[in-house]
């Protein structure tokens, strides 16, 4: 009886220490979270039921995920939607002109406008204004229809501005996709885009470019920066020794810390602390240098946590990429193509894989982890 009471007490404590993203009061200071664990602690769990679309090339979470538990996956066979945190998925492809989805972007005001966009391989950009129930192509002026990246303005609800990265540079729309114009980005393979959180005032946007073939030789990619909303660009590659860029990630506090990261194929992760003027490789502990995706904690300014999705699994850093730790226990497919993190606090991270599965990892505080291990000791 005493043993049963002890277990009940522990469970009560655990249930009272829920993730901030799911808590009633979200107006709390960000706290430090921990993913250290011992052999046998299996934190990754597969959440792919109902999904059959092959390689997960993009993941997008509702900004109001704490309330609606909604996320989307872009696959080679269309878009899938879950409204229960990934427990079950449904295909949502009505009207989607091309099922080979390369990128997704969701409106910051999704809770009220239900708007999201899908970038496809050969079909351009499609828009849904009903949470994925139906889609329509929005390609007027978009002359390159292979869309590898999409990025919406943080103020999209009022400025209707977003960008598309294609095989032939970047395009911009200021009317929610009704029309597109070519930006000043030099023609190239724009595979990643990232807008400043203060885009409305600083007009800063970064483009990550992959290396590509032209005229029988390789044209190096790299990072380009615009300070005027895409009208003009400059290369910012000093110290970027590998210029095949697959992913970009900006600090939520970019206006103050000027920090951003670039994930490259073969060169690992690079960090800039001066708005892209210079770069340094930050790969200590990163066992795989084929970086396909990056995800920064919403509280990065204080917790310095970020994640890298690679072809050798997922890695985490708690010190701004000074050192990385593998977090792959239980991850059934190490070929990770996409990452997404819950928007309130770094509570749950989702990983999409080449093999077509989605996995989730709930981060725990150190004392929660201790309690979980204690439960194991009671045979739970």
Low-confidence stretches: 4-42, 366-376
> What is the alpha-carbon Rg in Å?
21 Å
Helix content: 10-25%
Main sheet? 4 strands, antiparallel
**Any idea what the CATH architecture is?**
7 Propeller
* CATH class category name: Mainly Beta
CATH topology: Methylamine Dehydrogenase, Chain H
Structure notes:
The protein has 380 residues and is mostly beta strands. It has a single domain, classed as YVTN repeat-like/Quinoprotein amine dehydrogenase (Methylamine Dehydrogenase, Chain H). The chain has helices at 2-15, 65-68, 110-113, 156-159, 199-202, 254-257, 300-303, 366-377; strands at 44-46, 56-61, 71-75, 78-82, 90-91, 101-106, 116-120, 125-128, 136-137, 147-152, 162-166, 169-173, 181-182, 189-195, 205-210, 212-214, 217-219, 222-226, 234-235, 245-250, 260-264, 268-272, 280-281, 291-296, 306-310, 313-317, 325-326, 336-341, 348-353, 358-362. A four-stranded antiparallel beta sheet has the order 1-30-29-28, with no helix packed on it. It has a four-stranded antiparallel beta sheet with strand order 2-3-4-5, with no helix packed on it. Strands 6-7-8-9 form a four-stranded antiparallel beta sheet, with no helix packed on it. The longest helix is centred in the N-terminal third of the chain and has 14 residues, at 2-15. The radius of gyration is 21 Å and the shape is globular. Residues 4-42 and 366-376 have low confidence and may be disordered.
């Amino acid at each position: 009886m005493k043993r049963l009471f002890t277990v009940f007490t522990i469970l009560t404590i655990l249930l009272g220490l829920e993730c901030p993203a799911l808590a009633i009061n979200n107006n709390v200071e960000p706290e430090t979270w921990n993913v250290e664990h011992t052999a046998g602690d299996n934190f990754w769990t597969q959440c792919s039921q109902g999904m059959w679309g092959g390689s997960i090339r993009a993941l997008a979470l509702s900004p109001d995920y704490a309330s609606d538990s909604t996320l989307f996956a872009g696959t080679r066979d269309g878009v899938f939607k879950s409204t229960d945190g990934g427990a079950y998925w449904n295909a949502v492809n009505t009207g989607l002109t091309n099922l080979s989805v390369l990128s997704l972007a969701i409106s910051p005001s999704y809770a009220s406008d239900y708007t999201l966009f899908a970038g496809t391989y050969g079909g351009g950009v499609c828009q849904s204004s009903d949470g994925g129930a139906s889609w329509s192509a929005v390609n007027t002026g978009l002359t390159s229809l292979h869309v590898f990246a999409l990025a919406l303005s943080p103020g999209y609800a009022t400025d209707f501005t977003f960008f598309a990265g294609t095989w032939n540079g970047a395009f911009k729309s200021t009317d929610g996709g009704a029309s597109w114009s070519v930006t000043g980005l030099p023609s190239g393979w724009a595979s990643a885009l990232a807008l400043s959180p203060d885009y409305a005032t600083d007009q800063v946007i970064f483009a990550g470019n992959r290396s590509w073939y032209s005229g029988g030789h390789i044209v190096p990619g790299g990072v380009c920066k615009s300070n005027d909303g895409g009208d003009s660009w400059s290369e910012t590659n000093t110290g970027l020794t590998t210029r095949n860029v697959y992913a970009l990630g900006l600090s939520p506090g970019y206006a103050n810390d000027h920090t951003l990261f670039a994930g490259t194929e073969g060169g690992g992760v690079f960090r800039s602390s001066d708005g892209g003027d210079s770069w340094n490789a930050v790969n200590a502990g990163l066992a795989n240098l084929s970086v396909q995706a990056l995800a920064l904690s919403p509280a990065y300014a204080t917790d310095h946590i970020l994640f890298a999705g690679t072809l050798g699994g997922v890695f985490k850093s708690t010190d701004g990429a000074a050192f990385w730790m593998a977090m792959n226990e239980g991850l059934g497919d190490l070929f990770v193509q996409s990452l997404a993190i819950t928007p309130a606090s770094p509570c749950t991270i989702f990983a999409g894989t080449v093999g077509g599965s989605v996995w989730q990892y709930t981060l725990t505080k150190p004392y929660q982890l201790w309690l979980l291990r204690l439960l194991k000791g009671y045979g739970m």
